[in-house]
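To: structure desk
From: M.T.
Subject: fold request, one chain
Message: Could you run this one when you get a chance? Sequence is below, nothing fancy, just the single chain.
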Amino acid sequence: MKRAVTLWSESGGVGKTTMATNTAAALGRRGADVLVVDLDPQLGSLTDHVGFGDLKTTDDDHLGDVLLDQDRDASDLVVDAGDFDLIPSHEGLANIESEMAARNTSLREFQLRSSLTPLASEYDYFLIDPPATLNVLVDNALVAARDVVIPIELTRKGSVSIDGLEDTLDSMERGFRTFDESFSLGILAVVPNEVGDSNIYREVREELESGGKPVTPFGIRKRDVLKEAWRNQMTVFEFADSAETRDLRPYEKDLLDQFDTVARIVERGSVEAAVDVEVAQ
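Reply: Done. Structure tokens follow.
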């Protein structure tokens, strides 16, 4: 499979879905073919964000059916979301763990990867947005992607959560090597999100950097325009382009560059490589 990335944090409310949406849009605007897979059945998921919330309650085949039956074709679920394609979430995913247990599904953590493999030739990048709660959907996202981008709040809680998440990834890696000796999970980037100006932000960033975490040299600021774009079911890029919405204020335009840099991290495979390219330009 071509490069696939899961955006994940065990902490809810850190802007994970907003980051996934706008990173995918940035990649698409850089000329890449991008498929986003929304694994979150809850209200307010990426599918809702980009205007396909009605597909989460349809009686038609959905992502849960594909995960339960490998004879189903994931390509039948793909919808055009503008700058990227989307496999939408569905409320039926909420019961997927019990469904897999009832059917005694073998290698159930590998179902998404198997379903997406036939699509590998059609896309440059796969971005996966699972729920925050650790469950079989998160397992599937991590097995499919292997690389993780972590949005984090620059707070003491956020700093502690990174250590816990690293422990979780290490444990999962050891477990999955039972089935695949070459299996590895890695943190591609830690992206400070909803950043403000207090001293605690600077202190936590310094702690993460001194601990060797791949922290981006920028943080995505807390801006009301992200909420406005969400209400209008747009990415922030679409919001900036739309004649029906207000113009971005000068201090809001940095968001476009920041999401573009996250996209470049996905392209280049590391924070350092992406930042080096940005400096060279």
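Reply (cont.): Residues 2 and 184 are 16 Å apart (CA to CA). Let me know if you need anything else for the meeting.
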